[in-house]
Every structure is written in C-alpha cells, then in structure tokens.
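@channel sequence for tomorrow's demo:
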Amino acid sequence: MKKHDALSNICSTREASEMLGVSQRTVQLWVESGVLKAWKTPGGHRKISLSSVNQIIEKRQISIEMQRFISNAEFNILYIKDQVTPFNLIQNYFSWALNKVKVELMPNAFDGIVSLSRNKPDLLIVDVEKEDVDCIGLIKYMKNNQEFNSIEIAAFTSMPASLLIDYVGTNLNIEVFEKPISLMHLENYVGLLALRKKYK
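structure tokens (generated this afternoon):
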C-alpha cells in the first residue's frame, strides 16, 4: 500500500511536460534550477514529484489572473549575464508564466550601458559576483544617474545579500536574489512591478 502511494506521487519527465504544456527540455531545465523537485532511480530514470508539478499548475492559474490585471502593458527586462543557459531558462519560464514579459540578454556591463541608453527597460537584472567590478560599477552608475530613475534593479548573486549591498552602497534600493534563484519568487517580483507600471 505504501509503495502504491509513493508511486502515485511521482511522474516521468514526459508526463510532467504533458501536464504543464511545455517541452521535456523545459521540464529538465526547471528540475535543474529547482523549480521542480526530482531525483533519479538506480536505473538512471528521472522521477518528478507530482506535488511540485501541481504547485506549478496552481501557480500558473494565479499568473493567468495576474495577466488579466496587467492587460496589454508589456514589461521589458534587460538581463546582463555572460552565459546563455540561465537566460534561456528565465526567458522560457516567463514565456510560459507571464507572456507579456520580454527578456533581452546582454553579455557584459559595457553592452548593457549601450542598450540602456537606447531602450530603457522596466527592470535591469545583473548577474554579479564579488570580483565583477564592471557590473557593480554599472549598478552604482545607474543609481547615481537620474536618467535611469524609472528603471528597477535586481541582482542575482552567490554572495550574501548583505555583502552585495555593502559593495554597491546601502543607499541604493535594489532587489537581491541569492543563488540558486527561485523562479517563482522572481515571477512574483516581476508581476508586482508590472502591476505597478500599469497603475502608475
């Protein structure tokens, strides 16, 4: 009986992709990022927690309701990161969860500044580490330049949030996401910013 109950609480990658309406590759990315809970059997087969799939489905329903409030107002994100994989993960997640959100990738702080001068996004996300003086400098530059006052700033980092705040300045209002990033937390944050933008 216990074995039957345990089996009823798991599903395969294919089954999860069908339930969620996404590709199996997207399911794999969500597993690797911690969005979905999973493990591998001794035979090497990935099994996914059905409860974590159901949580995503419930979250999707909330996102649909949020989109009704957001209406046709698009929300633009500029993401500065030198690796494509995390960008693809975030882009794919938002195309599924909040399809009015558009994400653009820039590989470094210099290209980011050029893009910011041309097209001002609603949110800048900077992937920053302790030794990344360019990205830390970019955050400081933006916060000290009135031209960018309307842009919200978030940072992804492996550092403790308090340490990053020390680097960029305690007077700067930024949202810090410590790695590993919770995509649901990020989605809630972006959804609230999008609502704020609509009702300004």
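heads up for whoever presents: The chain has nine helices and eight strands.
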